[in-house]
Amino acid sequence: MARAVTNNRKIINTAAAWAVGLLIFFPILWTILTSFKTEATAIADPPVFLAFDWTLENYTAVMERSNYAKFLWNSIIIAGGSTILGIIIAVPAAWSMAFVPSKRTKDILLWMLSTKMLPAVGVLYPIYLICIQLGILDSRVALVIILMLMNLPIIVWMLYTYFKEIPGEILEAARMDGASLKEEILYVLTPMAIPGIASTLLLNFILAWNEAFWTLNLTAANAAPLTAFIASYSSPEGLFFAKLSAASTMAIAPILILGWFSQKQLVSGLTFGAVK
Amino acid sequence: MSFTKTLYAATAMALVTAGGAFAENLVIATVNNGDMIRMQGLTQDFTDKTGHTVEWVTLEENVLRQRVTTDIAAKGGSFDIMTIGMYEAPIWAANEWLVPLDDLSAEYDADDILPAMKGGLSYEGTMYAAPFYGESSMIMYRTDLMEKAGMEMPEAPTWTFIREAAAAMTDRDNDINGICLRGKAGWGEGGAFITAMSNSFGARWFDEEWNAQFDTQPWKDTLEFYVGMMNESGPTGYATNGFNENLNLFQQGKCGMWIDATVAASFVTNPNDSEVADSVGFALAPDNGLGKRSNWLWAWALAIPAGTQKEAAAKEFIEWSTSKSYIELVAENEGWANVPPGARTSLYENPNYKEVPFAQMTLDSILSADPNNPTVDPVPYVGIQFAAIPEFAGIATEVSQEFSAVYAGQQSIDEALEKAQALTNDAMEAAGYR
């Protein structure tokens, strides 16, 4: 039975949610505001919130110095490619674990997750050497493969969780109607799991977009994505916070817009199966 | 096809092929600082002169170090030119990772490079990296506050004077700290400062048998003096202040004195960024009467990784970017105050540059630094704020973390020195020095 919720409680809950939301969003808001300040205003003490002379000079300087479109295109290819490749591999894997589990399925799932516990820097040198040997250092192909492998455990786990919510009887019925394995996964399972797959896609796209270890260490002039674009404005010897903020805003803007438009799918996917 | 047409076609093909062979695209890894960014803006001049194009990979200093070290050790070949510092140059040269720069043209005039810079970027007498700009450290102080305190800054002050002046300039009610110094953990941040300071107190990192020396009195004296002075006259939270934090404080008029990189002089005297631009004076970094001052020596230099396929073009770029004519190009476009300092002797003989207020003090600071004899007692290493051995960066980062914990009041000086002694000796033993 649904619990009666008083008006006061609703107000408190709403206020708390807004407070937490604003707290989380504040660093992003501050970055955006700083990007419109001069370097001197950016470091002013006490900090200036809104009452400053807004300027676009940082954006102009960043656009003059860097080839933003190239970094953006690399980010789209690397994040998009690794996510799609990951989904293609993870859907059959998650299907087998959810619907034809073996005695070792749980162990395999845990083992997959345990690979995320290894610090990335521990395998930097071997992976660097492999990339040199294969001739794919500073290429988008290398990053698509590596980021896919890095995020694969999360993709499989998420899809496994969604697939477990789908009644096996429906797939059985499809099989009785003569559907092959491929048809069962493509035409029955996948459409039913669309919200889950969509949220997995989005989350992994965001993870790949923001990944800043491999993308900085395996790229130079050709495949560098927006993480390298931001890093190029960070300096321990000189105050360039306003330009750094402009570069950061330009780097997060596409993903922020994507997240804004797809927030419904993202939230419904992430909370799928959370309440029973 | 007639003979003439065939000849034309062959000539055209030969020209295209020759053009392709000479015009290279160079990939250069560099740091994000004012001088390097300025160079990126002027690269077209190089392309116009040589036909070579340039792609820049700009990274934050620590990321750059990790990135280029991985690439050069693995022979990745991602870069044709790398920006490296005085610490890396001799170590990488010893590993045969760099192309020697011993055949630069006569027009380049390698003898014009300041001897301290050339020495620090050489290995066994051969230069392996060309200095783009060099720096030492010096005192930057507020002339108005010094006057108000009724004191006068000598050109070469002692630490005792600095401590007294700092106390006299401190005005807590108006948020003015007498002195701002680096305390942030990291071998290139607080670690660099305290090491340079310790030299003037007679301390050293190692004795001639590579034994750590943190259990000696000069190190204790250094830390006691630093902590005492900073607690009296430094800003709150100085344990986490590095170059940028202190620059910010100084530019906003919250520091009476700041001892740091000479390159900061152009920032604090720039009226667009600094509220105190018109009242900044300069002096040599302090000493303690033991014959060694507490200034360091550093250069950002350009080097060519061994194995690059574009060595000739890379050398052309290095000649262009570290030449006298490049300095003139910057002066023409950005003014003399913005030319890369500290690399060439001729710059300091230029009457236009002599008018820049911090020029002479920068040169004096650089000239007073001797990386081959950095300490009062003899040491087996080269380097002032570092020891040019591969293990130093890791050890010094850990040691500086222990020192920062002292500045933050989390442990005593004795505890920190004891830990520093143990961890340094352990690391040196593991590396086979002892």
Summary keywords:
heterodimer, A: 276 residues, mainly alpha, B: 434 residues, alpha/beta, 8-stranded mixed sheet, two-stranded antiparallel sheet, 10 strands
Task: Please give a structural write-up.
The complex is a heterodimer of chains A (276) and B (434). By secondary structure, chain A is an all-alpha fold. Chain A has 14 helices and no strands. The longest helix of chain A has 32 residues. In chain A, 34% of the residues are buried. The mean pLDDT of chain A is 89. With 434 residues, chain B is an alpha/beta fold. Chain B is 44% helix and 14% strand. Chain B is built from 18 helices and ten strands. In chain B, strands 1, 2, 3, 6, 7, 8, 9 and 10 form an eight-stranded mixed sheet that branches. A two-stranded antiparallel sheet of chain B has the order 4-5. The longest helix of chain B has 20 residues. Chain B starts with a helix and ends with a helix. At the A-B interface, α6 of A face β1, α2, β2, α4 and α11 of B.
Total DSSP helices of chain A: 14
Pattern of helices and strands of chain B? HEHHEHEHHEEEHHEHHHEHEEHHHHHH
* CA-based gyration radius of chain B: 24 Å
Biggest sheet of chain B, in brief? 8 strands, mixed
Unreliable segments of 5+ consecutive residues of chain B: 14-20
Q: What is the average of the pLDDT values of chain A?
A: 89
Q: Tell the overall outline of chain A.
A: globular
Radius of gyration of chain A: 23 Å
Topology of this protein?
The complex is a heterodimer of chains A (276) and B (434).
Chain A: H1 7-34, H2 39-42, H3 57-65, H4 68-99, H5 105-114, H6 124-134, H7 140-164, H8 168-176, H9 181-192, H10 194-210, H11 214-217, H12 226-231, H13 241-261, H14 263-270
Helix pairs in contact in A: 1-13, 3-13, 4-7, 4-10, 7-10, 8-9, 10-14
Chain B: H1 3-22, E1 25-31, H2 34-41, H3 43-50, E2 53-59, H4 61-73, E3 81-85, H5 88-94, H6 115-120, E4 122-123, E5 126-127, E6 130-142, H7 143-148, H8 159-169, E7 177-180, H9 190-200, H10 217-233, H11 243-251, E8 255-261, H12 265-268, E9 280-284, E10 297-303, H13 311-321, H14 324-334, H15 351-354, H16 359-367, H17 392-407, H18 413-430
Parallel strand pairs in B: 1-2, 1-3, 7-8
Antiparallel strand pairs in B: 3-10, 4-5, 6-8, 6-9, 6-10
Helix pairs in contact in B: 17-18
